[in-house]
């Protein structure tokens, strides 16, 4: 029970990596807030996980909503030990083809959302004597990928923000780390398969991005997040844990 008696807020927890993390955290003894802008999906996950979980509808790019999320968590559950900044999404496009409004919308969620959630969580952590923050970055923050300029830039920003926050709050006993997943199967890829003119070729290329010749599953990232959130990682801060099937080792 590595998170026994701890409270965690997980953003983007209604699906994918966030949901897998919430499931694992509950099994490890935590009380978990399923924070997501999809009200129905968040409520369904909370029901699945039982009394240890509750749903909170939030747009992570909206400061007042994020502040209510953190304040409500502490008011109801007494403390905030772990924040997992996982909410995010991707879009296609290079600097020419990406519309300005699409760039802004993605940055608001992927990067500003991490800033806002941390901004309103950290004071609670300081007041109680410490905590842990785990951000979801990506391997593409280091190596890039064609036709995803906004997503690549946002995840590079998350990686840099992680290091900056770790330095700023080391004296507050708050550890800040990130995970850098490779290709992880999700509804994002499911939708791409549904609309692709050659699904089999697309899936084969997706697997071939890593020398292990497969994509990862959400639970494989959740286990890394659990480690960084737990006291087992007490000497880890400002670090990034890469889980990508060897993609960055090519």
Overview of this protein structure:
This protein is of the alpha/beta class and 250 residues long. The protein folds into 2 domains: 202 residues, 3-Layer(aba) Sandwich (Rossmann fold); 30 residues, no CATH class. It has a 7-stranded parallel sheet, sandwiched between helices. Strand 4, helix 4 and strand 5 form a beta-alpha-beta unit. Helix 1 packs across helix 9, helix 3 packs parallel to helix 4 and helix 7 runs antiparallel to helix 8. It is globular and about 50 Å long. The termini are far apart. The mean pLDDT is 97. This is SDR family oxidoreductase. One of its GO terms (molecular function) is oxidoreductase activity. Belongs to the short-chain dehydrogenases/reductases (SDR) family. Keywords: Oxidoreductase. It holds the Pfam family adh_short_C2.
Short overview:
The chain is α/β, with parallel strands linked by helices and 250 residues long.
Q: What labels would you give this structure?
A:
250 residues, alpha/beta, Rossmann fold, seven-stranded parallel sheet, 9 helices, globular, SDR_fam, SDR family oxidoreductase
SSE arrangement:
Elements: E1 7-11, H1 16-27, E2 31-36, H2 39-49, E3 53-57, H3 63-77, E4 82-85, H4 100-128, E5 131-136, H5 140-143, H6 149-169, E6 174-181, H7 187-195, H8 199-207, H9 218-229, E7 240-243
Parallel strand pairs: 1-2, 1-4, 2-3, 4-5, 5-6, 6-7
Helix pairs in contact: 1-9, 3-4, 4-6, 7-8
Protein name: SDR family oxidoreductase
Organism: Lichenifustis flavocetrariae
GO molecular function: oxidoreductase activity
Strand element count? 7
Strand content: 15-25%
Helix/strand order: EHEHEHEHEHHEHHHE
Considering DSSP H and I runs of 4 or more, what fraction of the residues is helical? 40-55%
**Total domain units:** 2
Task: Determine the CATH topology of the largest domain.
Answer: Rossmann fold
Q: Low-confidence segments, ≥5 residues, pLDDT <50?
A: none
Q: What's the Cα radius of gyration?
A: 17 Å
CATH class of the largest domain: Alpha Beta
How many angstroms separate the termini? 37 Å
Q: How would you sum up the global shape?
A: globular
- Average pLDDT confidence is 97
Lateral strand order in the biggest sheet: 3-2-1-4-5-6-7
Number of DSSP helical runs = 9
Which CATH architecture of the largest domain would you pick? 3-Layer(aba) Sandwich
């Amino acid at each position: 029970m590595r998170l026994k008696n701890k409270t965690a807020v997980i953003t983007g927890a209604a699906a994918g990596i966030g949901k897998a993390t919430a499931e694992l955290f509950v099994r490890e003894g935590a009380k978990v807030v399923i924070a997501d802008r999809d009200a129905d999906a968040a409520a369904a996950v909370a029901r699945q996980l039982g009394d240890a979980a509750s749903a909170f509808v939030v747009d992570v790019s909206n400061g007042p909503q994020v502040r209510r999320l953190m304040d409500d968590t502490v008011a109801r559950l007494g403390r905030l030990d772990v924040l997992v900044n996982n909410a995010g999404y991707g879009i296609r496009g290079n600097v020419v083809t990406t519309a300005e409004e699409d760039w802004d919308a993605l940055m608001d969620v992927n990067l500003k959302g991490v800033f806002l959630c941390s901004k309103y969580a950290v004071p609670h952590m300081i007041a109680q004597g410490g905590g842990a923050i785990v951000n979801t970055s990506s391997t593409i923050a280091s190596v890039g990928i064609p036709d995803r300029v906004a997503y690549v830039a946002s995840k590079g920003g998350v990686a840099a923000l992680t290091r900056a926050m770790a330095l700023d709050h080391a004296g507050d006993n708050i550890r800040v780390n990130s995970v850098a997943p490779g290709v992880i199967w999700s509804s994002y890829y499911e939708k791409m398969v549904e609309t692709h003119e050659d699904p089999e070729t697309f899936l084969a290329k997706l697997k071939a991005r890593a020398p292990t010749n497969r994509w990862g599953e959400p639970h494989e990232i959740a286990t890394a997040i659990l480690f960084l959130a737990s006291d087992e990682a007490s000497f880890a801060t400002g670090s990034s844990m890469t889980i990508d099937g060897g993609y960055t080792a090519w």
